[in-house]
Specification:
- There is one protein chain.
- By secondary structure, the protein is mostly helical.
- The mean pLDDT is about 60.
Length: about 20
């Protein structure tokens, strides 16, 4: 994901299995 600041590092791993948080 790239729209949330807090999403940057921790959710970066989730981006591998989860779709983009739109």
């Amino acid at each position: 994901s790239r729209l949330v600041a807090a999403d940057t590092g921790r959710m970066e791993a989730n981006a591998a299995f989860l779709p983009e948080w739109t």
